[in-house]
Amino acid sequence: MKNAVLNRIADKSAVIGIVGLGYVGLPLMLRFAEVGYKVLGFDIDQSKVDALHAGKSYIEHISADSIASARAAGFEATTDFSRAPEADALILCVPTPLNKYREPDLSFVLNTIDSLVPHLRAGHLVSLESTTHPGTTDEELLPRIESRGFKVGQDAFLVFSPEREDPGNPNFTTRTIPKVCGGVTEACQEIGVALYGAVIDKVVPVSSTRAAEMTKLLENIHRAVNIGLVNEMKIVADKMGIDIHEVIRAAATKPFGFVPYYPGPGRGGHCIPIDPFYLTWEAL
Ligand SMILES: NC(=O)c1ccc[n+]([C@@H]2O[C@H](COP(=O)([O-])OP(=O)(O)OC[C@H]3O[C@@H](n4cnc5c(N)ncnc54)[C@H](O)[C@@H]3O)[C@@H](O)[C@H]2O)c1
User: Fold this and answer.
1) Span 59-66, mean pLDDT?
2) How far apart are CA 253 and CA 90, in angstroms?
3) pLDDT tens digit string along 189-224?
4) Which is the most buried residue in 22, 93, 228, 239, by most CB within 10 A?
């Protein structure tokens, strides 16, 4: 089974299912389509499916032309999850917000996998890209997939591969941002690395889905802490009559051990203040 999936990825006959066509899913769809894969997009939002079929974009930095090119290359979108067997890979890019108690809200991820499970078939690769707490893939997705009678690693494959999209940043593209990938088993990891390696310049394998989940949290918590730090440093510097920007520029000349962050009202993206709570929830 593993070799059959690897062959389909290698000869580009694999159909790529992207589930959740938002800020993360749409650029990924474009990249797979650009490389020559047939992509089938799934979303629960009919208005997004209609817009994409009309060759329109609903995300500012994604052009209508790029959607039209993907359509010309065979991209289709649907709200019909019973079409999941047409895809070889199912890549989940759905929201992971917080609930009103600032706890992880996995309802989108769980609704998505519950909608897909009845349509899973042997050979499917499921990849979760949504930021989440360590253990989500193993504890939530794995048992649901195996409830269909599949043995993950043999009949079906499961990985976690966090998204590092930086919307609107002209210096990086989906292709050039290295992608971390951890599998439930070695076979899962091999297939996950092959899939992403077909469209992304550098794939970084890690030993488990938990390590991949924790990698994403470390990256975003690093940003959250340092954005908070530099904003507080600005308040202190202002009170001392010191220009914080001059200080950051000077500190950034240190060739090791310092990463410049700049003060401002931005939070580094909407995920940054949310994601630390995913770690807190798991750690407590
Ligand atoms: N936006 C970013 O810059 C960014 C960067 C890195 C990681 N992430 C993470 O990626 C994940 C997705 O974020 P996003 O910004 O793309 O979200 P988004 O809200 O832009 O898109 C999510 C899409 O999923 C769809 N959806 C919701 N429930 C669904 C379901 N049950 N089945 C199918 N589709 C469903 C929504 O209609 C929407 O189109 C989150 O975990 C987020 O934390 C986002």
Assistant:
1) 92
2) 44
3) 999 999 999 999 999 999 999 999 999 999 999 999
4) 93
Residue whose CA is closest, atom 25 of ligand 1? Answer: 20
Indicate the SS3 state at residue 160: strand
Whose C-alpha lies nearest to ligand 1, atom 41? 130
Report the residue among 47, 80, 94 best suited for mutation to probe ligand 1: largest number of ligand atoms under 8 A from its CB.
Answer: 94
Instruction: Locate the domains of the chain by residue range.
Output: 2-207, 216-283
Q: Which of 237, 227, 145 is nearest to 185 (CA)?
A: 145
- Helix (H), strand (E) at residue 203: strand 203-206
CATH code linked to domain 2-207:
3.40.50.720
- The letter for the amino acid at 66 is S
Give the dihedral of Cα atoms 163, 169, 171, 176; nearest 10 deg.
20
Residues belonging to the active site: 271
Quote the DSSP letter at residue 85.
G
The preferred substitution site among 18, 19, 23 for testing ligand 1, maximizing ligand atoms within 8 Å of CB, is 23
Which ligand 1 atom is at minimum distance from the Cα of 48? Answer: 39
List, in order, residues 6 or more apart from 138 with CB less than 8 Å away: 184, 209, 210
pTM, rounded to two decimals: 0.95
Q: Which long-range contacts (CB under 8 A, 24 or more apart) does 4-10 make?
A: 4/123, 5/88, 5/123, 5/125, 5/157, 5/191, 6/190, 6/191, 6/194, 8/88, 9/88, 9/89, 9/191, 9/194, 9/195, 9/198, 10/194, 10/198
Q: Which two tokens stand for residue 161?
A: 């591969």
The answer to whether the beta carbons of residues 71 and 47 sit under 8 Å apart is no
Q: Is 107 helix (H, G, I), strand (E, B) or coil?
A: helix
If you measure from the C-alpha of residue 231 to the centroid of ligand 1, how many angstroms do you get, rounded to a whole number? 28
> Average pLDDT of the chain?
95
Centre of ligand 1 to C-alpha 99, Å, is 16
What single-letter amino acid sits at 127? S
